[in-house]
Each structure stands twice: as structure tokens, then as C-alpha cells.
Queue: 2 jobs
Job 1
Amino acid sequence: QVQLVESGGGLVQAGGSLRLSCAASGRTFSSYAMGWFRQAPGKEREFVAAISWRGLSTNYADSVKGRFTISRDNAKNMVYLQMNSLKPEDTAVYYCAARRSYGSTRRTDYDYWGQGTQVTVSS
């Protein structure tokens, strides 16, 4: 069982940066691949980024590639999403998620979810 709590969202101007954090509980956190998803109003939840359990592999949606960076600190049970050069279209609720194996971009493949944190980018 993994419990996830996101933080770090807020209001930022276009071109600015934010760093989202996801705190995980559970002694087996380091054995889980982690992902970030987002959901804008009226849209489906979409994949943003994923990282393997040791952090050696990462994957990004094309829309955020080169601007966002996912990372993890297994000693602290934390996952991060550094978001740079933010655009108004990045506005969404951002969710942290966990699954046993790395490689999926489908939200239905993830077993555990946080409650989400709101990111709003003004133009």
C-alpha cells in the first residue's frame, strides 16, 4: 500500500517555474515506478511524466518535454516535478501516481493516486 500527498501547486505567470512534490508513505516506495498526470477542466486526465523505481529511466509527454523534469529521492520517499517555462495550457490539477512496473503512460495502469494539487498559469 502506498499513500501519496502532492504539494507545491499555485498561481504563476507564463514563463515562470514551479516545483511539485509528492510525499509517499510505505516502506516499499523505492520499488514503485512513479508518474505525474494532470487534468484540466473538461478534459481527461493525461500523462505528464514517469520515472523508474531507481530513477534511471524517465519518460515525458511531448507537450512538456524539455520544460519539465521528474526526479525522485528514495531516501526521503519523495518524487518531484520541476516545471519550467510554464504556459497557460499547463493549467490543471496535477496528480502523483504509483505502480509496480515502469513504462506505462496510461492512467488506468497506475494503482495509487494522490489527491492532486492545482497549478494555474496566467498569461
Job 2
Amino acid sequence: QVQLAESGGGLVQAGGSLSLSCAASGFTFGPSAMGWFRQGPGKEREFVAAITWSSGIPVATDSVKGRFTISRDNARKTVYLQMNNLKPEDTAVYYCAAGRVPYSRSPGHYDTWGQGTQVTVSS
């Protein structure tokens, strides 16, 4: 059974940086797709970025391009989200997710979710 454990997050001032990690376990040949989503107060869960274990090619939503970078370490089965130049509108609970549809932006295509980690950006 695939399990995801997130770490990182916290409180940062606008313009600052944070790094999130997502350690995957419980599989040898498991989900091919990994993604980061976020859910702000009173908002729906939205796609942030995605990557696959095989290619390592990252994709990101337009609002974070040039600021956020998703990457993966196959040996550690860990996916990272480096967030730079953070803005107050980036405030949300960030979730790591695993699925089998590469680069899907739909939460419904992801089978396993982490517990979420809070990111708060103050102005």
C-alpha cells in the first residue's frame, strides 16, 4: 500500500522561500505520477505541479511557473517542491499525491494523498 509522508511548510514572509518534501513508501513498482496540490481557505483543491518517476520532466500551473520547482529523487522515493518568491495568495494546505495518470491536473486521478502541510505567507 502506497503511503506518502510530507514535511516542510510553515510561516514565511512574502518574497521568502520554503521547501516541501514527500517521501513515498510501500511500493516497488507503484504509481507513475506524482503531484502537488493545494487548498486555500474556502477554495477548492487545485493543481500545483506534477512529475513522473521515469522521465523527471516537471510541469506546473501558470500561477507558480518561474517560482516553484518540482523534482524527484528516485533512490529516496521522494518528491520535492521548492517554492521561491512566495506570495500571500500561495497560502494554503499543500498536499502530495500519487496516481497512475501522468501529469493529470485532476485530483480524481490521484489515488493516494499525504496528510497535508500548511504554508502561510504573510504580507
